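hiii so um. not sure if this is the right channel but i have a protein structure encoded as tokens and i wanna go backwards to a sequence. like what aa goes where. can anyone help
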């Protein structure tokens, strides 16, 4: 996946980042963002790092977690990511 790729989900952008590790596996995490009245609201490092055998598997795990985070924020907008 291109490092500039974004996934759109329920009005949010999910921006995955994947990097190879020294042991020939991949680690990935996601930032999420949404447009608000004061501009773009970014949640950097919204997911933990996911270590997998392939780049696609690492990105899929991180994006699944980002989707859960977004669903939680939609369900309870007063909650903020740590």
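sure thing!! here u go:
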């Amino acid at each position: 996946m291109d490092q500039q790729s974004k996934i759109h989900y329920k009005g949010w952008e999910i921006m995955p980042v994947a990097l190879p590790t020294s042991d020939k596996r991949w680690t990935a995490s996601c930032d999420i963002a949404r447009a608000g009245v004061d501009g773009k609201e970014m949640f950097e490092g919204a997911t933990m790092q996911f270590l997998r055998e392939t780049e696609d598997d690492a990105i899929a795990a991180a994006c699944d977690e980002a989707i859960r985070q977004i669903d939680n924020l939609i369900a309870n907008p007063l909650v903020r990511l740590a």
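oh and The mean pLDDT is 88.
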